[in-house]
Amino acid sequence: MGGQRNSIAVVIPTYNEAENIEPLVGQLLALPLPLRVIVMDDNSPDGTGDILDKLAAADAMLRLRARDCTAGFRCYRREALERVALDEIFSEGYSFLIEMLYRTQRLGYRVGEVPIIFENRRRGASKVSKREIYRALYTVFRLRFGRLPWGRGAARRSAGG
């Protein structure tokens, strides 16, 4: 397989996955596929990054590419990112991803989906709190009904005529 060994890259965004990351990486690297694993850790306070540092030192097919990045399974074309007014985005956390999706679609960019099979975690607890869920719902509502009199753009619309 020589030159084909790196033909597939599996990118894993992590945050507080110390209990899960070593078994997951081990299972991926054991597959009879030409792949490498790239883990994007969001500066996990539980030591996920330290575990990844040790794993990466032991296996050249594992890369710890970045810390302090946001999680998500989305790719954007450079031109789309250049057109989105990032400084005008109101949302943060998971809601940021919702707003980015909304704004790129409003600019006319196509959005494709790659289906995945989501399996409930076997170790650890979800980092998605009820507060985050409510914030995401609020973001969807705000983006959908933002043109109502109480929306953020109301003052600009009334000033513009």
What is the topological layout?
Elements: E1 8-14, H1 21-30, E2 35-41, H2 48-58, E3 62-67, H3 78-83, H4 94-106, H5 130-144, H6 154-160
Helix pairs in contact: 4-5
Q: How would you state the average pLDDT, rounded?
A: 77
H/E series = EHEHEHHHH
Summarize the biggest pleated sheet.
3 strands, parallel
Computed over alpha carbons, the radius of gyration is 20 Å
Widest sheet, order of strands: 1-2-3
Strand content: 5-15%
How many β-strands, per DSSP? 3
Oligomer: single chain
Number of domains: 2
Helix fraction, binned, reads 25-40%
Structural class: alpha/beta
Q: For the terminal residues, how far apart are their CA atoms?
A: 66 Å
Count of DSSP H/I helices:
6
Poorly predicted runs are 1-5, 153-159
Shape category: globular
Task: Report what the structure shows.
The protein has helices at residues 21-30, 48-58, 78-83, 94-106, 130-144, 154-160; strands spanning 8-14, 35-41, 62-67. It is α/β, with parallel strands linked by helices and 161 residues long. The chain folds into two domains: 7-71; 74-150, no CATH class. It is globular, with a radius of gyration of 20 Å.
Sum up the structure in keywords.
disordered N terminus; disordered C terminus; 39% helix; 161 residues; alpha/beta; globular; 3-stranded parallel β-sheet; 6 helices; 3 strands
Summarize the model shown.
The chain has 161 residues and is α/β, with parallel strands linked by helices.
